[in-house]
Amino acid sequence: MSALRTTWSVTDYRRALRFAADAHGRTGVCIQDSSLPYVVHVVEVAAEVIASLAVEPVADPTLAVVCALLHDTLEDTDVTDDALRDAFGDAVARGVRALSKDASLAKSQQMSDSLDRILACPPEIARVKLADRIVNLSPPPSAWSTDKIRAYQSQARDIAARLRDASPLLYARLSEKIEAYEPFCER
Ligand code: NI
């Protein structure tokens, strides 16, 4: 069994951040209901992951941090699986693929399929998913219906339940966010 660590590579962080900023920048997409460039979202997810690493070490902290920064590149940009593998290696490419929905499946199956694939990866990848949903459980976009908001909260409960073993800290934080989301489900 490999030793658990808390420290990660700043060099790899910066390389992944630049790659992600470039890819998301090409789409011109902003965070919904804001003028912030989309890359701010992935930096927020990386911050959640980094905070967990300080108290809950993993075998490969750099894998967790780099996948946090790159987690939406396959789903939301023109970056290909091959480009990701060439730039960051197999473990990162597999992690980001697991964190991406398979658009060939029915929409109702996409999240559970992604969670299955995340659970087949090292626990570093599950941390990214927990962190992603923590960040995404901010006040919902104004265009969302109450039904959609409720479904998003319920999906967050599934994510928390299935991935909780990867990080008690992120699980607790996600559980708080799910509670705090309740008022939006009743509007
Ligand atoms: Ni995301």
Summarize the structure in words.
This protein has 187 residues and is mostly helical. The chain has a domain at 10-136: Hypothetical protein af1432 (Orthogonal Bundle), CATH 1.10.3210.10. The chain is 68% helix and 0% strand. It has 11 helices and no strands. The protein has helices at residues 10-27, 39-55, 61-70, 73-76, 81-88, 90-98, 107-119, 123-136, 146-163, 168-180, 182-185. Helix 5 (81-88) crosses helix 6 (90-98) and helix 9 runs antiparallel to helix 10 (168-180). The radius of gyration is 16 Å and the shape is globular. It binds nickel (II) ion. Nickel (II) ion binds next to helix 2.
| Mean pLDDT, all residues | 97
What is the number of helical segments per DSSP (H or I, 4+ residues)? Answer: 11
CATH homologous superfamily identity of the domain at 10-136: Hypothetical protein af1432
CATH domain topology of the domain at 10-136: Hypothetical protein af1432
Report the portion of residues in β strands.
Answer: under 5%
Structural class: mainly alpha
What is the CATH top level name of the domain at 10-136? Mainly Alpha
Give the N-to-C terminal Cα separation.
49 Å
Rg of Cα set: 16 Å
Bound molecules: nickel (II) ion
Tell me about the largest β-sheet: none
Oligomer: single chain
SS elements, strand count: 0
Would you list the SSEs in sequence order as H and E?
HHHHHHHHHHH
Question: Which architecture name of the domain at 10-136 does CATH use?
Answer: Orthogonal Bundle
